[in-house]
Amino acid sequence: MSFNDRYNCLDEAAYACADLCETLEACAACKCVVLPTSTGGDWGDVMDVFFCLMPILFLVYATIKPNPLPTTTSLPAAALLMYLVRLMYLQSDPILATGSVILGLHEALTPLSIMAGAITLFESMEATYCLPYMMREIKALTAGHPIAEAMLIFCFAYMVEGASGFGTPAALGAPMLVSVGHPPMESVVTLLIFNTFATVWGAVGTPIWFGFGSLGLTDDEYSDISRKAAACLAVSGVILIPAVLTLLTPWSVVRANLLFIFLSLVTCVGPSVAIAFVSYEFPSLIGGIAGCLGTALLIQYKVGLAEFKGAKRRSDSGHTSGSMHKEEESPVHDNDNNDTSPDNEGVEEQEEANLEQVELGEDDNSNEMDVNEEIAQVEAALGPRKSFSEGYLSELVLRTFPIWGVVLLLILTRVEQIGIKEQLQKREPYFDIHFGTWGTFRLSSAIVFQLRDILGYPGLNWKYELFYVPFLLPFVVVSAIIIFIYRKNLATSPADIARTVTQRLRNPAIALFGALALVQLLIRSGDAAPANILGTILSDWFKEAFVVLTPLLGALGSFFSGSTTVSNLTFGDIQVIAAESIGTSKTSILALQAVGGSAGNGICLNNIIAACAVVGLNIGEGQILMKTYKFVFANTTIATIIMLVLFIRFD
C-alpha cells in the first residue's frame, strides 16, 4: 500500500520527498504528517464526512425543529444511527461496534452517579433549610441593589457549578434572581450566560478528567488545558459580564458600578485562574467560594458600589397592597445603637416585595398564598436572625457546612501530597470473575470496579472508582451529616429526598446512556474510528482555519447534550487528530474545545427548559435562544482570539 494518499508537509521539498515515499517511516523522514485514507468507506472523503456527521446532524435537527425531540429520544436514536453507519458504511468489526455500545452504557454510570450525589446534596440543603438560610443572608446583605445581587449570585452560581455542575447553577440561580425582584425571563438568560464562564471545569473538573479521559493524556496535559482555558475565560468574563448585567438593569447603573463589578470579578475569577495553574478540579469551586466572600466584603463596605436610589422603588413595583417601608437605605449598616446584630429589615422588605412582585397570570392570588405559606414555613424553621452575641457565627458555620464540607473532602481526596487519592484509586490487589464473552469483571481492594476486554475485544475496558468519583465522597457523606445535624427540623424526609433524586435522574439517565454509547461509537477504535476519520479529513480541508471551528464544535456538543463533559467526550478525539494534522499543540486545541463546550451551555435546550420551569416561565425556548446565542458566539470568538495570540503556534 502507498501511504502518500494524503499528507501535510512543511515545504515544497518535503512534498517532493513525500511523493516518492512508500512507508510511514519514509514519509516521517520527509517531515510530513501522513493521513491514511483506507479507514473510511468506499465512496470517498465527502461521503465519509457526511455519513460520520449524519448522527450529529440528526441531533441538531431534532433539537432545533419546531417540535423538538427530547434528548431521551434523540440521543439514543443518534447512537443507533451511528451504530448502523459503523456496520453498513464503514464496515466496522461488529464485535467492536457492539462492544463500544456496551462500554458506553457502563461509562454513563460515572456522570450519573455524580449527578445523583449533587442532587442529593442540594435537596438535603433545601430539606435542612441551609439553602434558604443562605438566600436570607444574601437578601440582607445586598439590600435591593441590583448589581450587588447579580454579582453575588454570579459568584454563588460559579461555586455551585464547581460543586455539582450538570445544569444546577442555572436551575438554582435563576429563582434566586427572581426571588430578589428581577424579571423571570431576564433572570433565566442572565444565569444561562453566567454559567458559561465556569462549566469548563464543571463538577470538580469532570469535563476535563472524564471528558478527555479516553485520550490518554497525562496530568500535566490536563493542567495545561485548564490553564489555557482559564486565561480565555478570564478575558471574556471581564468583557462580557458588564454587558450581561444590562439585561437586568440599565447601562447607566452598570456604568456607575463598573469598579465594583471588576473588583467582584477579580475576587472570583482571579483565584479561579490561579487555582487552574495547579489543579484542573477546583478552579470553579475555590473561585466561587473566594468570590462569594470577596464580593460580600465589597458589598458590606460599599467598595465601588454606587448608591442605587431605585432599590426601594424596585422592591415596591408590582405591589398590590401598597406595603409601607420605613427605610430606604441599605439594611447592612452601622446601627446607631451599636448593636452588632445582623439587620433584619432588608430581608423583611425584600420578602414582602417578592411575594407580590412575581405575577404569573390569572392565578396570582393562589400563587401568592402558596409563596406566603412557603416563606412563613421557612421563617418559622429558621427563626429570627441572631446577633453575634446570640451565636450568629456558629449558625453561619453550620448552615454553610454543605459548601465548605464538600470543599474540605474534595481537597483531602484530590491533593496527591495528602496520600488519600492514591489509596482510593488502587487497582491491586483484586479478584476476577469471568463472565464468558461478556468480559472479565474485576474488583480491587479500593472498590474499583472494572470490566475488561468487553465481548473479548482487546482494549475495550471500563472502570469505576467508587470512592474517588465525586458521589459518595463528598456529596452523599456531607448530605448525611447535615441531615443528621438538623434531623429534628427537616422540611422533607430522607426517603422523600431519595425519591426526588430518582425521579430527577430518570430522563437524564436515558439521555446519558444514549450520549455515552454515541461517544464510544465515535471514538473507537484507532484509525477506523469516525472521530479519527472526521478529524483527519476536516483538518486537511480547512488547514489552520480549523482552529476557528474548534470552539464551535464544543458549543455544538453542549447544545445537543447539555453537558460540557459529553461535548468533550464527543469531539475530543476529533480535536486531537486535527491538532496533530495542522501541527499545533493538542492542549491548546482541547482548551478551545472545553471553552466552546462551556459556552454552549448557554444555548442548551435542556438547561433552558429546566431554568424556565423552576421560575414558572412559560415561553418558547427560541425566545431565550435569541438572547443567549450572541453572548455564546462572543465568548467563543474572544477565546479563539486569545488562544491564537497567546498559545497556538503552527509548525
TrEMBL record:
Q: Which subcellular locations apply to this protein?
A: Cell membrane
Q: Which PANTHER family match?
A: GLYCOLATE PERMEASE GLCA-RELATED (PTHR30003:SF0), L-LACTATE PERMEASE (PTHR30003)
Compositional bias segments (type: Basic and acidic residues): 324-336
Region (Disordered) residue spans: 313-354
Is Membrane one of the keywords UniProt gives this record?
Answer: yes
- The name on file for this protein is Lactate permease
The alphabetical list of record keywords is: Cell membrane, Membrane, Transmembrane, Transmembrane helix, Transport
Composition-biased stretches (Acidic residues): 345-354
What organism is recorded for this protein? Answer: Amphora coffeiformis
Describe its membrane topology: Multi-pass membrane protein
Classification from the root reads: Eukaryota, Sar, Stramenopiles, Ochrophyta, Bacillariophyta
Provide a Gene Ontology MF annotation, just one.
solute:proton symporter activity
